User: What shape does this take?
Amino acid sequence: MRFKNKVVLVTGAARDIGKAIAIKFAAEGARVIINYLQSEEAARQTEQEAKAAGGEVAIFKADLTRSAQVEKLKKFSSNTYGKKLDILINNTGGIVGRKKLTEQDEAFYDSVMDLNLKSVFLVTSAFVPLMTIGGAIVNISSLAARDGGGGGSSLYAASKGAISTYTRSLAKELGPSGIRVNAVCPGLIDTTFHDLFTPDDMREKIALDTPLRREGTSADVANLVAFLASEDASFITGANYDINGGLGFS
Assistant: This one.
């Protein structure tokens, strides 16, 4: 029960990694806010499972690339659990599509960068004023931030690289206020992301090239996120933790 009565916001928590994170915190006593945008049915399922795990849970729909909707999320959080936030998990993101440079245009650039980077900026800017000494932020970056990603993911990789750097910068800025900021960099994780955008044969090859010979799970990532958000990691900030089964080292 490391997070008993802690208020935790998990963005993009309807499914996969975000879902596993929300359930993990709920199971350890947190009061969790589940943000989602499109997958209401999945978000409701996550809410049910998180409540069954033992936590207090509330859900809220918001497009985190729009500042007005982020402010609505902040108001909902304050009205639900009070004007405080102990832990922020910036999980919202995605590849949008695999496109080579010659296939990309300005609209595609904006969609990828807004989803992955702007959302983190807007949510963090809005919620940090509610955080105090002992607060923790964990951002979801990617192995792509380190190795440039797979084919057609240059903008996704660039946006995740920006998140990794933003994590380091915020750690310096917020450290004196007692707020820690870290990131996790997942490799190949068994998620809808790869179901949609990574061919099966490519996934099989990557898994075979991974020293642990398997894809990771959302629960694997959730366990690491919970550690970084907990007092067990009280002297860790500005770090980008790899979680890829040994596929890439840093």
Summary: The first strand starts at residue 7 and ends at 10. The chain has nine helices and seven strands. The mean pLDDT is 96.
